[in-house]
Amino acid sequence: MKKYYDYFKHVKLKVTGKWIHSVVKGTPQKLTDFILYVHEVFDCRLPNDWIYEMVADAFRDFQIGELSLADFISQEQVDSYERDLIKRLKKGYTAEYCNEVVRKWKAKTDIYRLVALFLSDEE
Fold first, then answer.
1. Can you name the residues that pair with 22 across neighbouring β-strands?
2. How do residues 20-35 score in pLDDT, each as one tens digit?
């Protein structure tokens, strides 16, 4: 498996002090095209640091063996227990918080699945 995670860098902006994610010079075109594709899937303007972070994290997790490509591609996104828990949590004052968590969790899961599919094509 290619070590795509090595093409990502974490840079601190001088003016704001904020940390952002980017890719290094010499990054393969295939990887930059994939990052553009992920931004398009989520209808985001470039660059979106959260997407860069999730893509970098996914490459890292697959590269170090923390996640298996086959397991991740085939796993069910939300099992029935989680669906029931989400329904209960969405009642009352927790509704908006729960909606935000679900949106981010689903987006992160979708990004990891896209990276897994990208990497599986490499094998």
1. 9
2. 888 999 999 999 999 9
User: Of 98, 11, 117, 104, nearest to 58 (Cα)?
Assistant: 117
Question: Which pTM value belongs to this model?
Answer: 0.67
Distance CA 42, CA 23 (A): 19
Going by C-beta distance under 8 Å and a sequence separation of 6 or more, which residues neighbour residue 18? 12
Distance CA 18, CA 4 (A): 24
Query: How many whole angstroms separate alpha carbon 96 and alpha carbon 2?
Result: 40
With a cut of 90, say whether residue 7 has pLDDT above it: yes
In what helix (H) or strand (E) does residue 53 lie, and over which residues does it extend? helix 49-63
What's the pLDDT score for residue 77? 46
Which residues, at least 6 apart from 39, have a Cβ–Cβ distance to it below 8 Å? 45, 46, 47, 48, 51
Closest CA to 72 of 116, 121, 119: 116
